[in-house]
Amino acid sequence: MKQNRFINWLVFDWPVKVISLLTAVLLFFFVQLITVEHRSFQIPLDIIENSEYVIDSAYPLTIDVKISGQQEDVFMIYPEDLKVSIDISEIDVTGVATIPIEIEKGEVFETVGDIQVVPDPIDLRLHLGNRSSQ
């Protein structure tokens, strides 16, 4: 008898219950979306050099790094927790090269939630020349 009463309650006005449930789910995701926090840091650029080649073109000394995530996680990150570098040690030709910017995250990223870290720009277009001709 009790099971029958539960089933009757469940199917009574089921469209309203489904709409209410969908509204609650959409509201939850909307709140999650609008509570995403963004921060930006200027991080010094480290260069892993090559013994044969040197950078002949101008390049930025700092890279803008944007982080986003939940507010309580984003505000636990400091500029000292990030290291930005480019690696030209594996390049073996002169001329123009597009080199991706690499980001090394510190230990604090193991304790925080999901945080997105994006450099701006994501790569550098540099001209490399022979070190001996300098």
Rounded to the nearest angstrom, the distance between the terminal CA atoms is: 92 Å
Strand residues, percent: 35-45%
Multimerization state? single chain
Based on helices, strands and strand pairing, what is the structural class? alpha+beta
**What is the element string, with H for helices and E for strands?**
HHEEEHEEEEE
**Count, helices:** 3
What Rg is obtained from the alpha carbons, in whole angstroms? 26 Å
Number of strands: 8
Number of domains: 2
The CATH architecture classification of the largest domain is Beta Complex
Task: Kindly report the spatial arrangement of strands forming the biggest sheet.
Answer: 6-4-1-3-7
Helix percent reads 25-40%
**CATH fold annotation of the largest domain:** RNA Polymerase Alpha Subunit, Chain A, domain 2
Unreliable runs: none
